[in-house]
Amino acid sequence: PEAITVQELANRMAERGADLVKALFKMGMMVTVNQTIDQDTAELLVTEFGHNIKRVSEADVEIGIGGEEDAPETLRLRPPVVTIMGHVDHGKTSLLDAIRGAEVVAGEAGGITQHIGAYQVGLPDKSKITFLDTPGHEAFTEMRARGANVTDIVVLVVAADDGLKPQTVEAINHTKAAGVPMIVAINKIDKHEANPQKVREELLQHEIVVEDMGGDVQDVEVSALKKTNLDKLLEAIQLQAEILELKANPDRPAEATVVEAKLDKGRGPLATVLVQRGTLRVGDIFVVGAASGKVRAMIDDKGRQVKEAGPSVPVEVLGLSAVPSAGDPFSVVENEARAREVAAYRQSVLDRKRTTSAPVSLENMFASKA
Ligand code: GDP
Ligand code: MG
User: Fold this and answer.
1) Which residue range or ranges hold the Tr-type G domain (predicted)?
2) Cα separation, 190 vs 194, whole angstroms
3) Which of 50, 273, 324, 333 lies at a CB distance of 3.0 to 4.6 Å from 289, suitable for a disulfide?
C-alpha cells in the first residue's frame, strides 16, 4: 500500500532525484525518478543518505509503554524469530510446510496443527526456532511500517533453477533496510536444471557474499519438495541466533506484537501475538492498538490451551474487544483504568495522523496511510 515516487522522496529529503536513482541502481534496482518504490526501499535510501527515521510506535515511549530497557541481569536467551522471504513460486510456503511437517511428525502433539500465523519448531538440543508463517515481504514491510520489528533472521529463498528475480531483490533490500541478518536457502536443488553456483554469483551483484564465495552469509542448498537439508537450514539459523545472542527479560509484564488477527464467529476477535519480552498470562489486562481487553484464554501453535507464553512464543489470544491489525503493539498494563488511558492516547495519535497534513517527514507520510 505504501509507495512513493523517487522524485517525491528526493524532494522530501532535499536531495537530487538523480542521486537517488544512482543509489537505487547500486542496490540493484533499475528505476526512474517517476517510478514508485515501496516503504522499505525508501527507508533504506533515507538511511543511506544519512537521514533519520522515526517509527510510529515510538510515540508510545512518551506515555511509558515499551520505553524502558531491561537491566542486563534480567535478560535470558530467547529463540530467534525467522521470516521467510523470496520471489513468488520459489518455494516459501513449501519450505515453511516442510519445516513444520518434520516437526509435526516428530512431535508428541499427534500431528494436530493449527494455523495461527506463527509456529515454533524444536531442535534436537531442545532449543527452539519461531517461524512467522505469513511469508513474503508484504507482511514484513507492513509490520515494519507499523513500527514492529519482530524478525531476527530472514531466510531468503531462491530457486536454484530460476535465480534472482525482482522480488528476490526487493526482499534483499527490505532485509538490509531492517538491518536483519540473512541466510540464503537455495531451494529446488532436486531439479536437474538447478544451478546453485549461479545463484551465489548473482547474489554477489547485490553485495550478498555467501560463505562459499568467501563471505559471511550462510547459504544452504535445500529441497522443500524432497525435504533435503532441512536440518542443515535449521542448524544455520541456530548458529546465526547464537551469534546474535538474542535475549529478553521473561519476568515482567508482557509486550508483544500482533502477527495475525481475525473475527471468529464463535469466539469473537482473535489475535495471534508474538511475545517479545515478559510473560503473557491468562487474566492479564492489555492494550492492543487502540483497543483493550483481558486474556480469557491462550492457544499455542499445536492447538493446546496454555496458561502462559514467554519471549518469542506465538499464541492466539482470546478476550479482545475488537480485531486489531498485524503489527499492532500489544502491551500488558496494571489495570483497566490504565488500559483505557493508553488506548485513548493511541487513538488520539491515530486521529492526529489522519487529520494533519504531513510535514516533511517520512514518518507522517507513511503513518497517515497505515
Ligand atoms: P511460494 O510462492 O514461494 O510460496 O512457492 P510455493 O511453496 O508455493 O512453491 C511453488 C512451486 O514450486 C510449487 O509447485 C511447489 O511444489 C514447487 N516447489 C517448491 N519447493 C520445491 C523443491 O524443493 N523442488 C521442486 N522440484 N519443486 C518445489
Ligand atoms: Mg506461498
Assistant:
1) 77-245
2) 7
3) 324
* Residue length of the chain: 370
AA letter at 248: A
Helix (H, G, I), strand (E, B) or coil at 187: strand
Mutate to test the pocket of ligand 1, among 89, 229, 230 (most ligand atoms within 8 A of CB): 89
Q: Which residues lie closer than 8 Å to 99 by C-beta, 6 or more apart?
A: 121, 131, 230, 233, 234
For residue 349, how far is its CA from the centre of ligand 2 (angstroms)?
A: 35
Residue 351 to residue 210: CA distance in whole angstroms: 46
> What single letter denotes the amino acid at residue 157?
V
pLDDT (tens digit, 9 = 90+) per residue, 75-120?
A: 999 999 999 999 999 999 999 999 988 655 444 444 455 678 899 9
Residue 256 pLDDT > 80, yes or no?
Answer: yes
pLDDT greater than 50 at residue 365 = no
Could you tell me the sign of the dihedral formed by the alpha carbons of 188, 190, 191, 195, in that order?
A: positive
CB 323 within 8 A of CB 269: yes
Strand partners, 275: 256
What DSSP state is assigned to residue 108? S
Q: What is the pLDDT of residue 54?
A: 43
Q: Record the cell numbers describing residue 202, joined without a space.
A: 548473482
Distance between terminal CA atoms of the chain?
8
Q: Are strands 255-264 and 329-333 parallel, antiparallel or unpaired?
A: antiparallel
* Residues paired with residue 268 on neighbouring β-strands, in sequence order: 264
pLDDT in tens, 125-183: 889 999 998 766 777 877 777 767 889 999 999 999 999 999 999 999 989 988 899 99
Query: Of 1-5, 212-216, 338-342, which gets the smallest average pLDDT?
Result: 1-5
Out of 24-38, 54-68, 208-222, 270-284, which region has the weakest mean confidence (pLDDT)?
Answer: 54-68
More confident residue, 178 or 253: 253
Q: Which three cell numbers stand for residue 7?
A: 522524485
State in Å: Cα 72 to ligand 1 middle: 43
Q: Considering only CA atoms, which of 369, 360, 366, 368 is closest in space to residue 13?
A: 360
Residues with C-beta less than 6 Å from any ligand 1 atom: 86, 88-94, 135, 187-188, 190-191, 223-225
